[in-house]
UniProtKB/TrEMBL annotation:
Keywords: Cytoplasm, Heme biosynthesis, Iron, Lyase, Metal-binding, Porphyrin biosynthesis
Subcellular location: Cytoplasm
Naturally occurring in which organism (per UniProt): Paenibacillus glycanilyticus
Entry annotated with the keyword Lyase: yes
CDD domains associated with the record: Ferrochelatase_C, Ferrochelatase_N
Gene: hemH2
E.C. number: 4.99.1.9
Name listed for the protein in its UniProt record: Coproporphyrin III ferrochelatase
Amino acids binding Fe(2+): H186, E268
Gene3D superfamilies: 3.40.50.1400
Pathway it works in: Porphyrin-containing compound metabolism; protoheme biosynthesis
NCBIfam families: hemH
Catalytic activity entry: Fe-coproporphyrin III + 2 H(+) = coproporphyrin III + Fe(2+)
Length: 315
């Protein structure tokens, strides 16, 4: 039996990204539940990745770095008590792979945490369900961090980024006014509202607290959605591209996007915001900047570690 069998496992879960452009088709097929994308769909997604990575593929390293950063922080706070594993929704190592590795290492107790602060049954809930089912099958006692959207250190990290972003926006726009801050997150199907899902309200709560910490007046910010899926059912809106059109009509000249629903640089940030939204804003006469992402920010690592320790006080 491994020497890790007296430690608490930490399964760090996220959506996952391909490891290289060669893996995009397999990744897209998994997202589509085993149905291969059409050549047109594959080309569109591959083109998006090529536009942001230019033949290099650093996106996967963001998650790897966050897992390593969390391990380091846990070791500082509770030496020798925790060991981190990675589990991805749509790429290897899959969530089940991470749980199986814990079992092979003799782990008997574990905590699951998703690299997403806000809970939805369709996102964090689905990750936790997969992990719980595999853990039960393998005899691992598992608890979960459900959400951490109001953790003080997360709010501090985000508010500092808003303040910094506003300074950059003032420079790039030539102090253009008026300015609007757009907090954003990945859209989900509208049906979550009928389900009483907390996702939307948690995002609004985070945005409100971050705005207050950054001394942003209520009338100077609003929430918008982005990166909706292309399905027949309606998704939460308005989309940021539609929001920008409305703001242009209102005379807004500069926009800072704060994608608080995301914690690292990836496709929805580097393409949907940095390329697509920025171009759309420019065509509307709006200067657009976005806040820097959390990635391995020490305050975010503190947030994750403290959340894990609080959830991992297993009897």
């Amino acid at each position: 039996m491994s020497e890790t069998n007296n430690k608490i496992g930490v399964l760090v879960m996220s959506y996952g990204t391909p490891q290289s452009l060669d893996d995009v088709e397999a990744y897209y097929t998994h997202i589509r539940r085993g149905h291969a994308p059409t050549p047109e769909q594959l080309k569109e997604l591959t083109d998006r990745y090529e536009a942001i990575v230019g033949g290099v593929f650093p996106l996967r390293e963001n998650t790897n770095g966050q897992v390593a950063g969390l391990q380091d922080k846990l070791e500082q706070l509770a030496p020798g008590r925790y060991v981190c594993y990675q589990g991805l929704k749509h790429a290897v190592p899959y969530i089940e792979d991470g749980v199986e590795q814990m079992a092979r290492d003799g782990i008997k107790e574990a905590v699951g945490i998703v690299l997403a602060p806000h809970y939805s049954i369709m996102s964090v809930g689905s990750y936790n369900k997969r992990a719980q089912e595999k853990a039960a099958e393998l005899g691992i006692k598992m608890s979960f961090v459900k959400e951490y959207h109001l953790h003080p250190k997360l709010l501090q990290a985000l508010s500092e980024r808003v303040t910094d972003g506003l300074e950059r926006l003032a420079k790039s726009s030539g102090n253009a006014a008026p300015v609007k801050i757009l907090f954003s997150a990945h859209s989900l199907p509208e049906k979550i509202r009928e389900m009483g899902d907390p996702y939307e309200q948690q995002l609004l709560a985070t945005s409100d607290e971050v705005a207050k910490l950054a001394n942003v007046d209520a009338q100077d910010w609003q929430f918008t959605w982005q990166s909706a899926g292309r399905t027949r059912e309606p998704w939460l809106g308005p989309d940021i591209l539609d929001t920008l059109k409305v703001l242009a009509d209102e005379g807004i000249k500069a926009v800072l996007v704060a994608p608080v629903g995301f914690v690292s640089d990836h496709l929805e940030v580097l393409y949907d915001l940095d390329l697509e939204a920025k171009q759309a804003a420019a065509e509307l006469g709006i200067t657009l900047e976005r806040i820097t992402m959390l990635n391995k920010d020490p305050l975010y690592m503190d947030t994750l570690a403290e959340s894990v320790i609080n959830a991992g006080s297993l009897e």
